[in-house]
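User: Please go through the entry that follows and flag anything odd:
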Amino acid sequence: MKNKSANFMSSIGIFIHKILPISVPLILIVVFFFRLFFPQPSIFMIPDFGESDVLNYNLPLKNFLSQSLKNDTWPLWTNKIANGFPLLAEGQIGTFYLPNLLLFKFLPFIYAYNLSYVLSYILLAIGTYYLFRMFKFSPLTSSLASTILTFSGFFSVHLNHLNLLQTVSLTPLLWASCFRVWRRPSLRNMCFLSLLTAEQFFAGYVTIFFISLFIVILFLILYEFLIYKGFRDKYLFRRILILSTSFVFAILLSAIQLLPTLELVKLSTHSGGLSFENSTAFPYPPKHLLTFLKPYLFGSPGLGTYPGFSEDWGIFWENTAYLGLLPLILAFFSLFYLKKRRVLLFVILLLVSLLFITGKYSPLYLIFTFPPFNFFRVPSRYLILTIISLTYLSAITLENIFIYFRSRKKVLFVYILYFLFLMIIVTDEFMFSYRYPPVSKASLWITEPQVLDIIKGNNNKIVTLRSSLKWNDIFLHKGWTNIEPYVFFTNYLHPNYNLIFDIPQFNSTTGLFPRRITIYTDIAKNILIDGEKNSAALNNSIKNAFKLAGVKYLISGYPIKDQDIRLITTINAPATISTSSILVYELENPLDNFYLSSETQDVTTLQDFFMYLSKYESNDRNKIAIEDKIINLNNKLSARETNSKLDYLIVNDQSVKVVVSALEPTILVWNNNNYPGWSAYDDNVKIPIYNVNLTFIGVPLEKGQHNVTFVYRSRSFELGKNITILSGLTIFLILLLDLVSTFQKGSGNTRPSPYFYNKLSN
């Protein structure tokens, strides 16, 4: 009986000391997200300025990923946005992130989407707990640190940015893994770090990925200088070599995503970096630091009282990282231990983070004009370093409080204090994070809106006109106190929301655009809105750009009076909301998705193309603008009209078959962006593709019968895939050899030496 009693008490002790501390943040995560699953599937649909990153980005992109994976294809290309776009290359869809591959492949979409949040928070909580345990904090302190960081405002206000959360959730684990490699450079540690780094890149938010690596490298430099041997370690070169090798392997592992992304960057408007104005956009005014004390000091976006962003003012969900008052108080008292080098290290990290988040207001503002810092917007995202530093400093005070009472053998009082601190954190910080995001039924956002009853069918490409103005009429004044207006606004089919319903859209909401596509999409931004008369006006260039792109329907919140545009229906807003009706117009004589042309016009500059757009007339529908005179047919034909015929079959987004009966030489035009990777075959013989009308695909054909096939095969993707597979096999062999070597030596001791930890506890 005594042995059973002793074993029972031992089990209780193990549970309290090892299992309970990490269980607490995990239980809170379940509480936090339970509402998304019961009593009905729901989502965090959080409106933003002019749109929602839920509806316009993460929900449709993850839906497209889910459909692709379930159909056993990769989401390399979609014809449904911006007249064709390399969705995988843009990266934010997060194709190769392992949780995405598993969840969206095997689970119903909404459950996979919501479980992505849950898993991100779990990885964040476990990673933070592991990091603080590595820093030699006790399980109780590490548990509180994990709770503070996981439920901080930084993450809850970004619940509309799933890809950001997925990326940043790995930051503490990446930090811990880098530190482990630095202090104990072994093969298995190196391989794990490589895999983890690649996974964070795959998650899709490159800005956070870069910030994470920057944080880790900065920490290691300060650690080596302040705590270890001040760069006098005789093994320093070896440590740098092992860490660098880890990152090299990470680059090779991520090649399947990295190479297509680099290809897109090279063709995009971001290829040379951003201007200072763009790299410091959405600024963090220093007075916004007061929101660490009171998050809604300057207003609430949920109530529509927070100011709109401007050159001098940022965005609530970018500038808010509320930690609660208790962690701030505890962090302040850590300054009494400033003589300890680890405290000094994190005070320095905190100050550095403040210099970065303030962007153009910082003494370091010039750094945002140099690569790689000028490749990213929104400096306030360095807040992740701010909150980790503050969490660490608060943990210092907590640890010393617990040590004080433990030394006096008041263990029970230590646990009382732990639960007291936990209750304060839950009451303050957790409740802020819990209440911030609005929750609504998932069915509201994935059920077909009324507008689809009108525009379904063939040749139904749409363009949404300035819907952001109507959206902001609600958002800037009423926030999301009533979600019903935003449900009505789904009838606009904002880009990329149209992806969910398989409707092609002229525009796209993406982070990277090829320059040629941008020229087209920017044209739509020149629509004139008369607020007083509540009307919209389109000039000839805008209408002609739509016609050349094959746009049939215009969805607008403003009446349009134009002889080329016919109103076909009005969707009235419910009486319970105060917003104008949504108007659906039909554009006269848009070009088909595929058509044949027998007349060309040379354009050699952008100015030539803009002139061509302004003068294009409906009776010119057989004319195309070309850049390469090799496909000029004007000298071959005496008539403008062609008697040729065609028929086409779209197999999928990456394969199209077209049958052409050409009675004379002609040019087959497809309103799909000519992007690297597209190839054309005539009766299985490869034929050249040319740019027509600036960005679309044109194929010259001789007289006769033609079976033309267009296929998208990204060479950058195929090369990257091979590199990723080979590097993955290499890492597997390294781990296998390391395991065999360990087994042969008969050593099961893989624990790092005490010195690994003790330097940070001094």
The CA atoms of residues 681 and 687 lie 6 Å apart. The first strand starts at residue 42 and ends at 44. Residues 637-641, 747-762 have pLDDT under 50 and may be disordered. The two ends are 44 Å apart (CA to CA).
